[in-house]
Amino acid sequence: MSRTSLYKKQDDMSHDSGEDAVLAFSFEVKILVTDLNAALAARFKPLGLTGVQAEAIIALDALGSATLKELSAHLVAESGHPSRLVSRLVDDGLITRTTSAADGRAVVLELTRHGQVLAAQAREARQPLLTEFALKYGSRLADATTLLRELRTALGER
Fold first, then answer.
1. Which end of the chain has fewer CB atoms within 10 angstroms, the N or the C?
2. How far apart are CA 94 and CA 8, in angstroms?
3. In 14-112, alpha helices (H)
4. Predicted confidence band at 135 (pLDDT cuts at 50, 70, 90)?
């Protein structure tokens, strides 16, 4: 069954009951995440970056420097293994790891000059998509974001 026919089936079901509306909403969120990740991946691919790698270097660029724990808090990585991601970025020459002067047990992550350049290029690559969505949906995104946060909070309280 194609995604479109499954979507239609979910959409048809959403009128049956509140529970079906929850399932239809969940389906739409999953598809949106998949499609958005694919659109971003296509923009980052010419830079030699995956979506997760681009997200990590953009976050680290904004943070300036961070521990692995601090960087992880800014990422939504499904793998649950940000240390592997960081190791790959270190191996690729995009991030350096140094021992913290304040806490000899902590490791501080910073972008290399090449990492800073790629972070800027990644931000530029995603900008047209952000601008397009802001122009088309900006007035409705705040309400949608509030709803999603409320749903996440409700699930976290279970």
1. C
2. 44
3. 18-44, 51-63, 68-73, 82-91
4. very high
Residue 118 CB-density burial (10 A; 0-12 exposed, 13-18 middle, 19+ buried): buried
Q: CA 85 from chain center: how many Å? A: 14
Q: Phi and psi (nearest 5°) for 77?
A: -100, 120
Angle, nearest 10°, between helix axes 51-63 and 113-156? 100
- Nearest CA to 57 out of 36, 66, 25 is that of 66
Residue 1 is classified by DSSP as -
Polymer length of the chain:
158
Q: Which pLDDT score is estimated for 14? A: 44
Task: Supply angle C-alpha 62, 47, 136, rounded to 5.
Answer: 70
